[in-house]
Design brief:
alpha/beta
């Protein structure tokens, strides 16, 4: 990573897993990191751990619940007021394969948190990103599972039929579609902000445990722990694609970054191709419009030709 001194980065889900490791790496390279987390207690514990390991780490904890549009608006307004500039936004937080539930605004939780929450957050911080001198970036964390995803416009919220893995794959495909469409619109506006998508491969984090824990499945929890121990890379390695996407000089807007090793599940980060569906511009435009309507946000960006 190049030196990050003088730069301010927002990381969602910064208190654990990939977000924690990304926050620590940014701090090690001199960035000021705004830790956007649902639990202030866990965020403060993570902040103190990083400060103990990285003397002089510049960290600010702020509450952000991506399952609540009011919380997202409040966070964005506060950050815009407090921060002199924002050089990077890392849309990292998420939930995976959980039983069906709904956010505070009535969205299916995986689609609401993983996609719509980050859409609303990006809209709320976009003016600050555009005002900040130099190139700024929005990095949206997806997953290799997006390759199995389809955007079901007839049942986006899984009300008629719900499969937890299909819902997760849909939300992760939505992440990539959003990242690409955002970059196309930023280019059309001649903005100095670029948008990049990434995925971590297979990294051992708390994310895999949430679904089995909510279901009370001890067997699935044991299987996930065993699989993580045998096959997964560490969260620190899993954070590398996000860090590369956020800081590398050879990464361009509209690209997709992931680990280049075995089955793209581990290894050093590289630019890759995402699924064929993720390049469907008509689907991306439609998803953009639907997402603006659902979140009641509006991006001041022209539609690309």
């Amino acid at each position: 990573m190049p030196d990050q001194s003088g730069r301010t980065v927002v990381v969602t889900g910064a208190n654990s897993g990939l977000g924690y490791e990304a926050t620590r790496a940014f701090a090690e390279r001199g960035a000021h990191v705004i830790m956007a987390c649902r639990s202030l207690d866990r965020a403060r514990t993570a902040r103190d751990e990083i400060r103990a390991a990285v003397p002089g780490a510049s960290l600010t904890v702020r509450e952000l619940d991506l399952a609540d549009l009011a919380s997202i608006r409040s966070f964005a307004e506060r950050v815009e007021t407090e921060a002199a500039g924002i050089h990077g936004l890392c849309n990292n937080a998420g939930v995976m394969a959980v039983p069906r539930s709904e956010t505070a605004d009535g969205f299916e939780t995986q689609f609401g948190v993983n996609h719509l929450g980050h859409v609303a957050l990006t809209a709320g911080l976009l003016d600050a990103l555009r005002r900040t001198p130099g190139e700024t970036r929005v990095v949206t964390q997806s997953s290799g599972v997006h390759e199995r995803g389809e955007i079901d416009f007839a049942d986006l919220q899984g009300e008629a039929e719900y499969d937890k893995w299909a819902a997760y794959a849909q939300s992760k495909l939505a992440n990539v579609l959003f990242a690409y469409e955002l970059d196309r619109r930023l280019r059309a506006a001649r903005a100095s902000v670029t948008s990049v998508a990434c995925h971590p491969g297979y990294a051992a984090t708390n994310l895999q445990r949430r679904g089995p824990e909510r279901e009370g499945s001890r067997l699935r929890l044991w299987l996930i722990r065993a699989s993580n121990a045998l096959f997964a890379q560490s969260p620190r390695r899993g954070a590398l694609p996000l860090l590369y996407a956020a800081t590398a000089s050879d990464v361009d807007g509209g690209e997709y970054v992931g680990p280049g090793g075995f089955l793209n599940m581990r290894g050093a980060p590289e630019t890759q191709d995402s699924s064929d569906r993720s390049y469907d511009r008509e689907t991306a435009r439609r998803l953009w419009t639907v997402s603006e309507d659902l979140t009641r946000v509006e991006f001041d960006l022209p539609e690309p030709s």
